[in-house]
Specification:
Length: 318
């Protein structure tokens, strides 16, 4: 194909593969959730000047970093809308696959318990994509903006055929919403930069220049705001799928009576680390993060994109 006819996805991939000695890398985008706090399908909310979504900017950053394949985890009931608004932007530009997270997508021998309606969680979403991914891959949320440097750091780690998995950590105070509480995985990191464990806190809010978590019992846990947190930006090699499958089976055995329990990626990683089977490198990001947890967050996301365009970090139209 002549260079003049390349679209931006193909051109960036061509240049990255030509000048960098890196492996094929996949980007796994978790986009199956409806967004209970947001109140709708927040993955398709426009934040760019020409209707671009946060996913558009994430893919743009990922391709520039060297990722050359997209895998979307969605639900069957949003497939038509998602493909029309999101998927069609990329399907003619690069390799795109879909995996469908449904309640009945369970390992052999398990059934959906009566009354269960809540999704199984992010760990299940990653497992759903196992048949579509055979190379090192990154995992991101479809409604979080991570920044270009975060993808570059992640790709550099995975592209060196590094045996360790990894995650990109963000500073807690840079990830909070002005409009309500958020869930964050607070990380404990070893002196040499590896993950020791992740504690999922589900009701963190700003408080007097710092932060606090309100536990289910009502007890308040003060936080400095400087804690390193997981924003669900992970780097894995395909060997992770066997371990996730194993842990998901254990989860189903132990939590079937609970209709609301979810199987989270940090829980899988904690088990992996605690068992001494793998090490998980913590990569630090100084990028500006923003996401769409509440409808009011859209204004901040739109303003953030506008500022980044104004500083030349993104084109006016993707």
């Amino acid at each position: 194909m002549a260079q003049s006819r390349r679209n931006w996805c193909q051109e960036i991939i061509f240049n990255e593969k030509r000048w960098q000695n890196i492996m094929n890398l996949s980007l796994l985008v978790l986009a199956a959730g409806m967004g209970s706090r947001y109140g709708g399908l927040k993955q398709v909310v426009p934040v760019g000047p020409n209707g671009e979504t946060i996913i558009d900017y994430s893919v743009y950053d990922a391709v520039r970093a060297g990722f050359d394949k997209l895998v979307f985890v969605i639900r069957r009931d949003i497939e038509a809308q998602f493909r029309e608004i999101i998927g069609r932007r990329f399907e003619n530009r690069m390799a795109v696959e879909y995996a469908f997270q449904e309640l009945d997508a369970l390992p052999q021998g398990f059934q959906v318990p009566a009354g269960r309606k809540k999704p199984w969680g992010t760990g299940h979403a990653v497992l759903i994509a196992a048949n579509a991914i055979h190379e090192p891959f990154a995992v991101i949320n479809g409604d979080d903006f991570y920044g270009a440097a975060s993808f570059q750091t992640l790709a550099a780690h995975l592209g060196r055929e590094n045996p360790s998995h990894c995650m990109v950590g963000f500073v807690l105070q840079n990830t909070l919403s002005e409009f309500g509480s958020v869930s964050r995985g607070v990380c404990e990191v070893t002196p040499d930069g590896f993950l020791k464990g992740v504690t999922e806190l589900t009701r963190i809010e700003k408080c007097d220049g710092a932060a606090r978590n309100i536990e289910a019992s009502g007890q308040v846990q003060p936080l400095t705001g400087q804690e390193i947190v997981s924003m669900n930006m992970w780097g894995f090699n395909p060997a992770i799928f066997d371990f996730i499958q194993q842990e998901f089976c254990e989860f189903l055995k132990n939590t079937v009576p609970d209709e609301k329990s979810e199987f989270y990626i940090p829980s899988v990683v904690n088990q992996l680390v605690n068992a001494g089977k793998e090490r998980v490198k913590v990569l630090r990001s100084t990028d500006v993060w923003f996401g769409v947890t509440y409808r009011e967050d859209c204004e901040r996301a739109t303003a953030g994109i506008r500022q980044l365009i104004g500083s030349g970090q993104y084109p006016a139209k993707l």
